[in-house]
Amino acid sequence: MSLLDSALVRLLPAVPKPVVQLFSSRYIAGATLADALQVVRDLNAGGKLATVDVLGEEIEREEETRAIAQAYRDVFAAFDEAALDANVSVKLTALGLDLSYELCRENLLDVVRTAAAFGNFVRIDMEDASTTDATLRLYRELREDGHDNVGVVLQARLRRTLDDVRALAELRPSVRLCKGIYLEPAAIAFTDYEAVRANFLRCLDALLESGCYLGIATHDEWLIGESLARISRRGLGPDEYELQMLLGVREERRDELVAEGHRLRVYVPFGEEWYAYSLRRLQENPAMAGTIARATAGRMLRPLRL
Ligand SMILES: Cc1cc2nc3c(=O)[nH]c(=O)nc-3n(C[C@H](O)[C@H](O)[C@H](O)COP(=O)(O)OP(=O)(O)OC[C@H]3O[C@@H](n4cnc5c(N)ncnc54)[C@H](O)[C@@H]3O)c2cc1C
Predict the structure, then answer these.
(1) Kind and range of the H or E element at 174?
(2) pLDDT tens figures, 186-223
């Protein structure tokens, strides 16, 4: 990304919401469960799996967290009714982590138990580094209480992650490994692009060594190649790992990977709370910052219709 683009990316929060919505619509299934189900149906028809995220950021009240848990119950029932091949991803702050650990635990248990009743699975997304300890603690508590239909996410960006992999190994966890979207200070995170890649592979090796089920969540072609080479050297079958990508990103490559026989899952967010998620996606899109800046300038000349 050029210096100009990096500067523009930092200005994205100042861009009018309708412009952000226009450019981020490819990353979001829509506002309603019906929108998400349609996207999942299409993905399944193309041989892909899905994980559905009920967008619920900036949650401030207990009732809102209960509503998110209810929304996930509805999602499982709808998957079941439509016989869709999909699981869910949850953010612990949406389930109340910032309000109280106990409230969050209660909501998460509710979602995990509902998933189990439908023979389904819950992936706990990883948020910024202030939540890592609580997230891993909650994950461990659930597993130690016998809830095996739950997995977690680890971020290669964080320096601690290899230690976290080693600490979790005894649980044979289901882990989604990603670079990590939240930019953290150098004291706790790798800030250099190549260093994040190198740590991704160190963590991937350690996770494979521990015999866990691995979701490899990246669109980085070099990392996809290196990861698949390692999987192949270990002789893993197609049901022993999966590749994961975000809705709206590298769609042609997704198709190729499925045609090559890999299991591929697409992250499908839906809901009214699209703004914070959209900003994160746009900020990591290398081609987008300049385009949005031009569109914003254009909008000042003539009003945009949405
Ligand atoms: C399924 C899934 C779940 C995730 N869950 C989490 C999570 O729980 N916690 C967390 O911190 N992070 C999560 N992430 C985000 C992840 O940490 C990275 O921020 C994100 O995937 C971008 O990193 P990358 O590995 O794709 O590499 P990059 O180097 O960022 O991207 C490689 C290439 O992919 C393409 N690309 C990447 N992003 C975009 C985009 N938004 N629009 C257009 N093209 C793009 C570009 O061609 C880019 O050059 C998740 C990612 C995926 C795929």
Answers:
(1) strand 174-178
(2) 999 999 999 999 999 999 999 999 999 999 999 999 99
* Residue ranges of the chain whose pLDDT lies below 70: 1-8, 288-290, 293-306
pTM exceeds cut of 0.70: yes
Cβ atoms of 91 and 125 closer than 8 Å: yes
Q: What whole-number distance in Å separates Cα of residue 63 and Cα of residue 65? A: 5
Q: Give the CA angle between residues 82, 249, 67 to the nearest 5°.
A: 50
Which atom number of ligand 1 is nearest to the Cα of residue 265?
Answer: 1
Compute φ and ψ for 83, nearest 5 degrees: 50, 50
The pLDDT tens digits for 142-157 are 999 999 999 999 999 9
> Exposed (0-12), middle (13-18) or buried (19+): which is 243, by Cβ within 10 Å?
buried
Which of 176, 197, 254, 281 is catalytic? The answer is 176
Q: How far is the CA of 303 from the centre of ligand 1 (A)?
A: 32
Task: Write the pLDDT tens digit of every residue in 147-195.
Answer: 999 999 999 999 999 999 999 999 999 999 999 999 899 999 999 999 9
Going by C-alpha positions, the residue among 64, 3, 42, 18 that lies closest to residue 292 is: 18
Token pair, residue 296, equals 């914003």
CA distance 142 to 144: 5
Do residues 265 and 40 touch, judged by C-beta distance below 8 A? no
121 touches ligand 1 (CB under 6 Å): no
Token pair belonging to 267: 């992250």
Torsion angle, alpha carbons of 20, 25, 31, 35, to 10 = 180
Strand partners, 244: 217, 265
176 is an active site residue: yes
Give CA–CA dist 125/154, Å, rounded.
9
Round to whole Å and give the CA distance between 201 and 223.
8
**Looking at 226-295, which runs of residues are DSSP E strands?**
241-246, 264-270
Ligand 1 pocket check for 249: Cβ under 6 Å: yes
